[in-house]
Structures are given as C-alpha cells and as structure tokens.
Specification:
With about 200 residues, the protein is of the alpha/beta class. The protein contains 7 helices and 10 strands. The strands form 2 sheets. The chain has an 8-stranded mixed β-sheet with strand order 3-4-2-5-6-7-8-10. Helix 1 packs antiparallel against helix 2 and helix 2 runs antiparallel to helix 3. The longest helix has 19 residues. It is globular, with a radius of gyration of 16 Å.
C-alpha cells in the first residue's frame, strides 16, 4: 500500500494558500524521503545522519502545522534535550521562518529551563525520565517531540518511529490540546495513529 496518495496530495495543495502549499509540499517531500529511501540505504541505523536529517525535516513541518496561542512571541525556541544525535542537521532550522515566527535552536541541559521552549525534542537518551519531566510541563503551550518507544503514552505530543526503514509518526492529540496547541488536520491525516 502506498503511503503517499498523489490524489490526496493534489487535493491538499488545491485547498491551501500559497504559503501553506509551500509548507505542505516540503512536508510531503520530507515524508517521501523518509518513507521511500531504498532498503540498502543506512537509514535503519539509530545514529544515521540520513535518519536524523529526515527527522529534522519532519520537526520543521510539525512546527509549521502547529498553532500556538496568540500570546506566544515571535520566536519559536526549538529545544533539544538530552544527547544530540542530530549533529548539524537540526541547526539548519535556525532562523527559518514559519507564520512570521523565527525558529531558534537551543540545546538544553537543565530541565528547569525547558519552560522557555515552544517546541522540545526529547532525545532517546532521556526516555526513562520523560514522565517526570513532562509532569513539570503540563498544560504549558509546548510542542513535545520524541523518537522513543511508547513516548506518546508518556505524554509526548508527537513521536517518530523507524518502521521498516521508514520514518512514521503518531500524535497524542489529547496532550497537544491540553497544552493549548492546535495541530492541523492535514498533519493528523498523515499520522499513522492519533491518540484522542
């Protein structure tokens, strides 16, 4: 079964404005990269730069298809907490603009500083601490992201997984809404699972 349906792709493009068209195109292109890389490509390796390059593209689009409360400032602090497997890939998002807000990439080592973030990627290296960290961030307008098993069950809003050498994601919509975030229906349609 093909994950990307060109008919759906064309329908979504027709319904969007010019900016959304561009964002959706980039998002679907990132999905195509993540889902259609040949089996011989080293994307299955946990520390593969290709894997984290694709994940960085996904993160950009997760941010693009999320709406924060109006009180959110002009900067989206995208924080990386835990061991950084992205190397330079996540830095490519620095100063990119989404809906008149600029992304600032910040690496955080102190969990007390996480409330200053609008989006946080939790590394696999901190997966054992997720529940306790997330309890301190409850109801904050923060998009929480991870790539760890069962992360959505622990309260992560969007979790990526590597399945058959393809990047897929699931969304904890209940958690996102409790945080005051609105995730686009376009993004929800592309998730492999939406927890409500």
């Amino acid at each position: 079964m093909r994950f990307l349906d060109m008919h759906l792709f064309n329908r979504l493009l027709k319904r969007s404005n010019t900016f959304a068209k561009r964002s959706l195109y980039h998002f679907l292109f990132a999905l195509y990269l993540g889902l259609c890389l040949p089996a011989s490509h080293p994307v299955a390796m946990a520390d593969s730069m290709v894997e984290y390059q694709v994940k960085a593209a996904f993160i950009y689009n997760f941010i693009a298809f999320t709406h924060w409360p109006d009180s959110t400032g002009q900067t989206i602090n995208l924080c990386v907490y835990g061991e950084d497997y992205f190397d330079q890939e996540i830095d490519k998002l620095q100063n990119r603009s989404i809906n008149n807000r600029h992304i600032k990439v910040v690496r955080i080592t102190n969990p007390d500083k996480l409330k200053a973030c609008q989006a946080i990627f939790f590394s696999k290296s901190v997966s054992a601490q997720l529940s306790s960290i997330l309890s301190d961030l409850q109801n904050e307008p923060i998009l929480t992201l991870a790539d760890s098993p069962n992360a959505t069950a622990q309260g992560i809003a969007i979790n990526m997984s590597l399945v058959n050498e393809k990047i897929v994601f699931e969304i904890n919509l209940t958690k996102a809404r409790a945080s005051g975030l609105d995730i686009s229906s376009k993004l929800l349609q592309l998730a492999v699972k939406v927890h409500q």
